[in-house]
Design a protein that fits this description.
single chain; about 425 residues; alpha/beta; TIM Barrel; eight-stranded parallel β-barrel; 12 strands; globular; binds 2-acetamido-2-deoxy-beta-D-glucopyranose; Glyco_hydro_17_plant
């Protein structure tokens, strides 16, 4: 090669070619506290219909893990809080990992195990005390089975682990949790595992509807707020919450840690005292959120970091306890039809006449695209649900453009 920089140019080109061509990745929580959900086989096309490439489970349901084999969908499996004390025993952890993770790899792409959910904010010191030991023995089991390079171990926290979240730059963990959180952060950092946070601007609105602007929580146009410490401007609460988490991590010296939003969502129905829970607001929240994910926006404090978000949730779950909102977070009803008009056509999964063509009903935009209104290239919605064909086509376009750029670079010896 005459051009000494050819290799680096080629590498640059390959990176440029591969990464932007990837479809922005949506994650979805697949909760199953219900007795009326469709079979996992029928959920596969539904997950694909919303453009989700990552699914988070609250257990390691064998039916789900089998149904999603060879689909390319990545999984976070869960170990419920009730297992924590048992998992502190290395033998139990090893048996669990063998039966629930190793057994499904590599056909089902399990990438992470979430040990416990929102453990620290139960204020149950004996449960909290088991958390890190359980995470460690699950990780050690993965090491023993030589799976630790492909499967990370983490745990999901509620934003209530923060003492301060406003303004975002003042974000800090609850002082009484620091003794617990610091060693967990140390573990996550050493094992290159992400920090998971469940963030619901809905709760902030519900608790304080007179003071919290609905437009600010729903990603609608609004004046927003400016963080006086760094002049960063926030036009939605979720970004403010995420940056408060980054600030809290920075404060403890973990400024490189990856943050994933393991849950966020909005209920389409609630009790009389649950202001804001409505199909209109759920549509605005989740619709705008999906648009933002597809635009690959970062937060004001981390503009170049992709949002890593798991929407809550796939289905309305009829057996969840608590207020009405708890049973109404689903993008879909149990019959597979959309819970509200988010633009997904869903798939008829009840009854015996399902044609199982991947949910592609007449009038949609071709294989894999389930969105109405029809394609509008300036509409962020389309990007998250590009059909494989379109991705490939756009990849070839990029390839052509990339080659041209390289040739130009070589010609002008840039
Ligand atoms: C846990 O403790 C914190 C701090 O003392 C308190 O603010 C919070 O309300 C408690 N949460 C629960 C679920 O008891
Ligand atoms: C399937 O379609 C046929 C013909 O339209 C109808 O008679 C039958 O009741 C349908 N079955 C179900 C389970 O919907
Ligand atoms: C496409 O989106 C743009 C910008 O949002 C809008 O102005 C235009 O009316 C849309 N076109 C169609 C056909 O929906």
């Amino acid at each position: 090669m005459e051009d000494p920089h050819f290799t680096s140019k080629l590498l640059l080109f390959i990176t440029w070619f591969l990464f932007p061509a990837m479809v922005a990745s949506v994650g979805i929580n697949y909760g199953q506290i219900a007795n009326n959900l469709p079979s996992p086989e029928r959920v596969v096309p539904l997950v694909k219909s919303i453009g989700a490439t990552r699914v988070k489970l609250y257990d390691a349901d064998p039916k789900v893990l089998k149904a999603f084999a060879n689909t390319g969908v990545e999984f976070i499996v869960g170990l419920g809080n009730e297992y924590l004390s048992k998992m502190t025993d290395p033998n139990n952890a090893q048996a669990w990992v063998k039966a629930n993770v190793q057994a499904y790899l590599p056909a089902t792409k399990i990438t992470s195990i979430a040990v416990g959910n929102e453990v620290l904010t139960f204020n149950d010191t004996s449960l909290s005390g088991c958390l890190l030991p359980a995470m460690q023995s699950v990780h050690n089991a993965l090491v023993n089975l030589k799976l630790d390079s492909q499967v990370t171990v983490t745990t999901a926290h509620s934003v209530a682990v923060l003492q301060n979240s406003y303004p975002p730059s003042s974000g800090a963990f609850r002082p009484d949790l620091k003794g617990c959180i610091s060693p967990i952060l140390d573990f996550l950092s050493k094992t290159c595992s992400p920090f998971l946070i469940n963030a619901y601007p809905f709760f902030a609105y519900k608790a304080n509807p007179k003071q919290v602007s609905l437009d600010f929580v729903l990603f609608q146009p609004n004046a927003g707020i400016t963080d006086p410490a760094n002049n960063l401007h926030y036009d939605n609460m979720l970004f403010a919450q995420i940056d408060a988490v980054y600030a809290a991590l920075n404060r403890l010296g973990y400024n490189k840690m990856t943050v994933q939003i393991s849950e966020t969502g909005w209920p389409s129905k609630g009790d009389d005292d649950e202001l804001g829970a409505s199909p209109e607001n759920a549509k605005k929240y989740n619709g705008n959120l999906l648009k933002i994910i597809s635009q690959k926006k970062g937060t004001p404090a981390r503009p170049n970091t992709d949002l890593n978000i798991f929407v809550f949730a796939m289905f309305n779950e009829n057996l969840k306890p608590g207020p009405t909102s708890e049973r109404n977070y689903g993008l879909f009803k149990p019959d597979g039809t959309p819970a509200y008009g988010l633009g997904f056509s869903g798939i008829g999964v009840s009854g015996g006449n399902s044609t199982s063509t991947g949910g592609n009903s007449p009038g949609t935009n071709g294989p894999g695209v389930y969105l109405s209104p029809p394609a509008n290239s300036s509409d962020g919605y389309m990007d998250i649900s590009l059909s494989p064909e379109k991705v490939i086509r756009s990849s070839w376009r990029r390839l052509g453009m990339g080659l041209m750029l390289i040739l130009m670079a070589m010609a002008f010896d840039i």
